[in-house]
């Protein structure tokens, strides 16, 4: 049965069911053959369904960051492409936030990688609690994170960051009887019809670094965030 083409199998099944349902019921041998064919077909379909499910599970594993449970860079790229395409079809902008933890390297060096991992997981959980159904987040690598808000305005995005920043200010990671504060710098950009994904990410990244270098934690709402020039090559 493994070598039987699925379309041929479906045709045989239709013929088998048709003949079995006719008034001139076939002889017992033919009926048994058709029954076996149907049984094999159902078994094959079950295996195909299980294979597809397994493939989706493996794809999810490849797309997820094991430490935080967020998307990794690969998964983020796939999801962002879909979000931007959907935004273009339904004419609504997509907001991309880039976040980078402040002082993470020093904390990591002083308390060790296990403490650093605890901080990364803590920050990821705080982000997840703020997300709505259509939104998603990723750990792009190291202590850099990204959040995509699919139906938010620029004001709504600034409010999202403000809430997250406020939550960060009230929380800390308890590590070996010490409270380790968690702070981050944020920047964001808004998609436009003539901007590619690479340009959008680059603008959000630049916005974040402006605030990090200025020792600020909230984006400047007066700074332009919409891409003005289109890159020839989008991010893959």
TrEMBL record:
Domain GGDEF: 92-224
Region (Disordered) residue spans: 212-236
GO molecular function ontology, one term from the record: diguanylate cyclase activity
Domain of life: Bacteria
Keywords (A to Z) from UniProt: Coiled coil
Catalysed reaction, written as an equation: 2 GTP = 3',3'-c-di-GMP + 2 diphosphate
CDD domains in the record: GGDEF
Enzyme Commission identifier(s): 2.7.7.65
Record has Glycosyltransferase as a keyword: no
Enzyme class: transferase
Database matches in PANTHER family: DIGUANYLATE CYCLASE DGCM-RELATED, REGULATORY COMPONENTS OF SENSORY TRANSDUCTION SYSTEM
Protein name listed in UniProt: diguanylate cyclase
């Amino acid at each position: 049965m493994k070598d039987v083409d699925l379309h041929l199998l479906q045709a045989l099944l239709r013929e088998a069911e048709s003949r079995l349902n006719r008034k001139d019921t076939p002889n017992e041998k033919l009926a048994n053959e058709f029954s076996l064919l149907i049984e094999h077909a159902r078994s094959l379909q079950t295996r195909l369904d299980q294979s597809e499910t397994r493939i989706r599970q493996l794809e999810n594993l490849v797309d997820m960051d094991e430490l935080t449970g967020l998307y990794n860079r690969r998964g983020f790229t796939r999801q962002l492409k879909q979000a931007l395409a959907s935004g273009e079809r339904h004419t609504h902008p997509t907001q991309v936030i880039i976040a980078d933890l402040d002082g993470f390297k020093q904390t990591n060096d002083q308390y060790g990688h296990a403490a650093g991992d605890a901080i990364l997981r803590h920050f990821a959980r705080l982000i997840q609690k703020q997300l709505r159904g259509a939104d998603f987040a990723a750990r792009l690598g190291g202590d850099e994170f990204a959040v995509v808000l699919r139906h938010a305005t620029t004001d709504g995005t600034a409010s999202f960051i403000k809430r997250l920043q406020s939550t960060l200010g009230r929380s800390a990671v308890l590590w070996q009887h010490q409270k380790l504060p968690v702070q981050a710098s944020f920047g964001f950009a808004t998609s436009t019809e003539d901007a590619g994904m690479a340009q959008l990410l680059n603008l959000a990244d630049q916005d974040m670094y402006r605030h990090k270098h200025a020792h600020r934690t909230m984006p400047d709402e007066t700074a332009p965030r919409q891409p003005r020039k289109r890159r020839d090559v989008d991010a893959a």
